[in-house]
Design a protein that fits this description.
Layout (H helix, E strand, L loop, with lengths): L1 E3 L6 H7 L9 E3 H4 L3 H9 L5 E3 L4 H15 L6 E10 L2 E11 L2 E8 L1 H5 L4 H16 L6 E8 L17 E6 L4 H16 L7 H4 L5 E6 L7 E3 L2 H10 L13 E6 L4 H6 L7 H5 L1
Parallel strand pairs: 1-3, 2-5, 6-7
Antiparallel strand pairs: 4-5, 5-6, 7-8, 9-10, 9-11
Helix pairs in contact: 6-7
Length: 280
């Protein structure tokens, strides 16, 4: 894989981005283990043909900077940026945990406000529980998991809204699985990587489903977005937006919005080699 610099970013940023690392057979990190096996397979197969621009790594560089500052200011006695490597099922599983402190595992993330406003993501639960399994496998006790989120697109003006975070930060408690459930999940994931790679799941694709938006002429945002046309019609009837002949009134319309796989479309570096994405 080549690292490009299409936007002529400063040399320091290019160096901070680092060199792309090829996949090592039967060695996998926690973040890769919870993503689709097909991405890993295609990345390995087309490694010499792939290119990634430095600009795609800017937020990762910001995260690295934040991690370094927080690491230098960690609580006394805490273990930070500790690498753990475990052999299981013919694989070498590795991870670097941000903070382990007296039974608490914390993971720092630089993410969007939207990400924390819509509940706990399954991949956060999976990632932190895999960290917990690795620590427990090394005879450490783990009693709690926490995601420490820095909200990079937070807006002070929007903070007046009831559901919007008051500050660009949120600490989220993550459900802790039993050691047995963690081990079972790992074995299930490893089996997927040992098998012929399947199409990524909707979760792995960041799939947005089809929706129907109720729009009003002259207004940019939707009055309401609903998961089916029937629900959109029912809502419009309740709000008296439909006349007796079934036509929308007063400049209102129901607009179909086709769902799409956000990760496949905008963030997957191997989408042009993916047979499933090409079909869409």
């Amino acid at each position: 894989m080549k690292l490009t610099n299409k936007y002529n970013l400063p040399e320091a940023i290019v160096k901070a981005a680092g060199e792309p690392r090829p996949i090592v057979e039967k060695r996998i990190g926690v973040t890769s283990l919870i993503t689709g096996p097909l991405v890993r397979h295609l990345t390995n197969k087309h490694w010499d043909e792939l290119a990634e621009d430095v600009s795609a790594r800017l937020w990762a560089i910001m995260g690295q900077t934040g991690h370094a500052i927080l690491e230098n200011n960690a609580p006394e006695g805490a273990e930070v940026e500790k690498k753990i490597v475990i052999e299981r099922g013919g694989w070498t599983i590795s991870s670097v945990t941000d903070v382990y402190n007296q039974g608490l595992i914390q993971d720092y993330k630089w993410t969007s406000v939207w990400a924390v406003m819509h509940g706990i993501k399954p991949e956060w639960v999976q990632q932190l529980n895999l960290y917990a399994w690795l620590w427990r496998s090394c005879d450490y006790s783990v009693d709690a998991l926490q995601l420490v989120a820095f909200l990079r697109d937070w807006s002070k003006n929007k903070a007046r809204s009831e559901d919007y975070p008051n500050i660009p930060f949120k600490c989220i408690d993550i459900p802790l699985w039993s050691f047995e459930k963690q081990a079972e999940f790992i074995d299930t994931r490893l089996a997927l990587f040992d098998a012929e790679p399947l199409e990524c799941t909707p979760q792995e694709k960041w799939q947005k489903e089809d929706t129907w938006a109720i729009m009003k002429k002259g207004r940019k945002s939707a009055l309401r977005v609903l998961p089916s046309k029937d629900e959109a019609i029912k809502y419009s009837e309740q709000k008296s937006l439909i006349d007796q002949d079934g036509a929308m009134k007063n400049g209102h319309t129901i607009v179909f919005r086709k769902g799409e796989a956000i990760k496949c479309k905008d963030y997957c570096i191997v989408n042009k080699y993916c047979p499933y994405y090409k079909e869409k």
